[in-house]
Amino acid sequence: PLVSRTYALQHRSSSPYGVKFVPRCREDGTYAPVQCLESVGCWCVNGQGKPLPNTTVQHGKPVCVKKGKSNQRRSSPRNPVRNKRSCSRMDRAVFNRNLLKLFENEHSRVQPAQNVKGGLTATTVSEKTVLDWKFASIDGNRNGVLDKTEYRELKRLIKKVVKPKRCGRSFGKSCDADQDERLSRLEWANCFSKDNLTLLSG
């Protein structure tokens, strides 16, 4: 998989037709179980990277399970009362807002205040600036991708202090659109935007 990905990247610009899809791989070189293409959506693949039938999802991502089980989205449990409450869309919006506030407070502590007419005042920054800053502070090797070891401590903190806690348990996994166990800058940004931070004020 890594060889084919490297080849595709090297020949992307030289090909007269262009390379429309480059497969995503795990760190160990195997194919990520979910592959995505903007114009198509996301789908499940087997160990050889071949698409599995009836798994393509245009919005969101499919639930890919091990061989021998259904590769389609799992149906709702017959007795949902016995299951723990899941993180709903509204829950996720509240969680994202609380998490962003945590990042903003941290950013304001480490960034120096600006002088305005002889006095000091806190700088108003955009959500994107705060998210970009936080991503960079976690990205220890500066490769533009967060692996599990890099955001492990953040996840522990989130599970303890950010509510609703049921959403904190799935942080990271819920952001990992292609399920390669890493978070790209795009996945990091989408993790906060896709669940509509404006939902609470709408």
Short synopsis of the structure:
35% of the residues lie in helices and 10% in strands.
Describe the structure.
- The chain has 202 residues and is of the alpha+beta class.
- It folds into 2 domains: 2-57, Invariant Chain, Chain I; 89-108 and 126-198, EF-hand (Recoverin, domain 1, Orthogonal Bundle), CATH 1.10.238.
- The protein contains 6 helices and 6 strands, in the order αββαββαβααβα.
- It has helices at 2-10, 89-110, 127-138, 148-161, 165-168, 185-193; strands at residues 34-37, 41-44, 114-116, 119-121, 145-147, 182-184.
- The strands form 3 sheets. It has a two-stranded antiparallel ribbon with strand order 1-2. A two-stranded antiparallel sheet has the order 3-4. Strands 5-6 form a two-stranded antiparallel sheet.
- A hairpin with a 3-residue loop joins β1 (34-37) and β2.
- Residues 13-19, 68-77 and 195-202 have low confidence and may be disordered.
- It is found in: Secreted.
- GO terms for molecular function: calcium ion binding.
The whole-number mean of residue pLDDT values reads 76
- H and E string: HEEHEEHEHHEH
Radius of gyration (Å): 20 Å
Distance between the termini: 44 Å
CATH level 1 name of the largest domain: Mainly Alpha
- Overall shape: globular
Fraction of residues in β-strands:
5-15%
Fourth-level CATH superfamily of the largest domain: EF-hand
Record field, number of beta strands: 6
Structural class: alpha+beta
CATH topology group of the largest domain? Recoverin, domain 1
- Helix percent reads 25-40%
Strands across the major sheet, in which order? 1-2
Task: Give the biggest sheet.
Answer: 2 strands, antiparallel
Q: Supply the number of helical segments.
A: 6
Q: Quickly count the domains.
A: 2
List low-confidence stretches: 13-19, 68-77, 195-202
Label the CATH architecture of the largest domain: Orthogonal Bundle
